[in-house]
Specification:
Order of helices and strands: EHEHEHEHHEHEHEHEHH
Helix content: 25-40%
CATH topology: Arginase, Chain A
Distance between the termini: 13 Å
CATH class: Alpha Beta
Oligomer: single chain
Shape: globular
Length: 268
């Protein structure tokens, strides 16, 4: 399944997310097999999470789609990082010994209580681990254990997130050192992988069309090499691409190798 999920409410940034998703839609064209219908507005509620109603409804639609189609592998094209609840929790239920590779400058590990912005795209990993909104927890197909997570490219972390990462001893490698990644995965007896790729994991000097670019970061060629190695060593059952703001195909050109590899990884 190649799933287009153009949610923007989790980032509370409509125009750049929509334009990025439309560009990706043009890039992949008829390869996209399914789409989650998203709202055109915010549907504001009193919930601490901004735009909660829209996020809940869109997550529910994704859940129903996955229940109906029952895909073996998923490539999810976003959209903000909040799109990850259903694909990750679904595949985590289907496959034992799943590792979650999180290419991201940000930890995405706040709760509604700890988040300053109250934007959901900063919360999906904690939500997947069972901490967060109780109603969204009910939608998740399964609960993720923190030791399944490996952060690559992480370099902009809030204090509550840092405390959680330290408490749970979650793997993190800002430089994404390949040998330590492989050693950790094999020590933890991981057999299958989900690869989340937020383009802000990349250095802005390599790719600047990310929603929240952060200085330094990973090189495109190194990121590609990591995915190739992981694809060779493990069964990649899910991939995703999030928070792209490219306005046209020319702006996407630098990350074409990654775009093609994320798609290819679920087809072999």
């Amino acid at each position: 399944m190649i799933l287009l999920f153009p949610q923007w409410q989790g980032a509370n940034r409509k125009d750049p997310i929509i334009q990025g998703t439309e560009t990706l839609k043009e890039y992949y064209g008829t390869k996209i097999t399914h789409r989650v219908i998203t709202e055109s507005h915010t549907m504001v509620t009193s919930n601490p999470i901004k735009n909660y109603s829209a996020i809940y409804n869109q997550t529910l639609r994704c859940r129903e789609l996955l229940k109906a189609e029952r895909p073996e592998k998923i490539y999810t094209i976003g959209g903000d990082c909040g799109i990850e609840l259903m694909p990750v929790s679904y595949l985590n239920k289907q496959y034992k010994n799943l590792g979650i590779i999180w290419f991201d400058a940000h930890a995405d590990a706040n709760t509604p209580a700890s988040s300053v912005s109250k934007n959901f795209h900063g919360m999906p990993l904690r939500q997947l681990c069972g901490a967060g909104d109780s109603e969204l927890n009910k939608l998740c197909f399964s609960k993720v254990n923190p030791n399944q997570i490996l952060y690559l490219g992480l370099r902009d972390v809030d204090n509550p997130e840092a405390a959680w990462i330290k408490k749970e001893n979650i793997f993190q490698s800002p430089e994404a050192e390949i040998s330590s990644i492989l050693k950790t995965l094999k020590t933890r007896k991981v057999e299958h992988l989900y690869i989340h790729f937020d383009v802000d994991a990349l250095s802005p000097t390599d790719f600047s069309h990310a929603l929240l670019p952060i200085p330094n970061g990973l090189e495109i060629n190194h990121s590609k090499k990591i995915i190739e190695v992981l694809k060779k060593e493990f069964n990649v059952v899910g991939t995703s691409l999030t928070e792209v703001t490219a306005k046209n195909l020319k702006q996407l050109e630098p990350i074409k190798p990654i775009l093609d590899l994320l798609e290819k990884s679920i087809k072999e």
